[in-house]
Design goal:
alpha/beta, TIM Barrel, M1 Pyruvate Kinase, Domain 3, Pyruvate Kinase, Chain: A, domain 1, 22 strands, 36% helix, 23% strand, elongated
Length: 481
Amino acid sequence: MRRNRRVKVVATLGPSTSSTEMIERLFLAGVDVFRINMSHATRETTRSLLNSVRWVAKRHHHPIGILGDLQGPKFRIGELQGGRAFINDRAIFRFVREETPGTNEAVFLPHPQIFAAVEPGHMLLLDDGKIRMRIVESTRNSIAAEVLFGGALASRKGISLPDTLLPVGALTEKDQTDLAYLLKLGVDWIALSFVQRGDDVLEARKLIGDRAAVLSKIEKPSAVADLDAIISASDGCMVARGDLGVEIPVERVPGLQKKITRAARAAGKPVVVATQMLESMISSPQPTRAEVSDVASAVFDGADAVMLSAESAVGQYPVEAIQMMDRIAIQVEGDPSYDAIVHATQTTPQPTAADAIAAAAHAIAYTVKLAAIVCYTATGSTAMRVTRGRPALPIVGLTPVEATARRLSLVWGIQTVLTGDPQNLSDMVRKACRIAFDEGLATSGEGILITAGVPMGSPGATNMIRIAFVDKDGAPMAEIL
C-alpha cells in the first residue's frame, strides 16, 4: 500500500467513523495514523477502535499508527443561577472560592491553583475567548477582573489564562489512568495536552518510558516560550492551532505555525499541523478555497503530517475529507516550486557521525542519480535522520520491529516495510534491492542507497552506506562500498 505523497495524514476517530468498515475506508482513502481523543472516548470505545485499526493493518499488511490524545487539565467556572448570565462590558467581575450560585457579578472558580498564580494585568478568557477580561486585583480567595468584551456566559464554561504559568503538571489523575490504559493496549504515540514547559514532558516521560513515542501539543504561550526545551524532550510535536488561537491573537498563529514547524524540522522531530484544516467539510462535501490553501501551506512548509479532527470524527463527509487531504498533498508535492520552498528551511546536520552519514546519503543519492534511499532501522533513528533533510527520493524504512514501523507512519516521506533482521551486510543489500524492486521504487539497472546503524538496534548509530544496482530479477548486480 504505497502512498503517492510524502506528508502523512492523521484522522480523528469518533461517532462518524467508529466502525471497522469505516476505519478501513478511511485507511484506503489515505489515512496513515488514527487519533483517539481521550476527552471523549471511553475504555470500551478505545479498545474497540484500537482492535479495528489493528485488524485493518493486518488485513492490508501495512503498518498503521495509533495516537492516543490525553485530555489534560481542564479549568471551568462553577454554576450560574438559571444556568446563564449576561456579563456587561467594562464591568468588574469577580471569581471567588466560595461555592455559591453565580450571577452577572461573580462566579465560583473551583481551582485554587489559579488564585495562587494570577497577577494584576493578566488576561482571563472565558468560553473559548468569546469573553475577555483583565485582572485588576487578586487575593487568595478572590479575583477581580475588568470585562473587556462581555456577553452571555453559561455555567461550567472553560477558562483560559494565556499570561499565567500555572503550578500544575500536564497529567491529571484522569490522564494518568488513561495513559496506563493506552500503554497497556499498545498505542504508538501519546499526545500530551497542556504542556507549559520542557519539564512537563520529562515528567510524562517517566511514566511512558519507551513504550510509546511522546507528541507534545504546542497550544499555550508558555509552551512557545519554552519551545526548544519541549521539542528536545519530546519525540515530536503538534501545532494545536485551536487552543493556541484562543490564548494568543489569531493573527499570530500562522507565523507561530511556521516557527514551530521549522524548529521541529531542525531538531529532526516530526511535527503535525492540526485543527480546522478542512472545517467546512464537517457539513459540506467540498472545502473552501481558504482551507485548501491552509493545508497546502502546511505541506509546503515540510510538516510531517496534517490532521483532521471534527471533520473525520463527527463530520458528514469523513472519507471525502481524507481524499481531499490526499489530493491537495499530491498536488503540492508535484508543484515545480515545491522543492525550492520546502528546502528554504535549512536543516543543518548536528555535529555527530550519524547525522553526517545521513547528510552524505542525500548528497551521494543526488550525485549518482539513484532511485531510492533504503534505511535499515530497528528503533527508527536511522530513517528519521535521513528524512530530516526532506530528500526528493523515495525513502524506504526496513525494520524487524512492528512498533517501530507503526511509529514511523507519522514521519514525513518514509514508507515502512516489516522485514527480518539481515544475517550480514550482503544479506542486507539483497533484502534492500528485492524490496525496492518489488515496491516499484527501483527498476532493472537503477541504483539504491542503503544506510544503517551497525550493529543493528543501537539508537543513533547510523554509520554505514552502501550503493547497489538492481538487476532484472530484483537482485543486486553490483555493489559499491
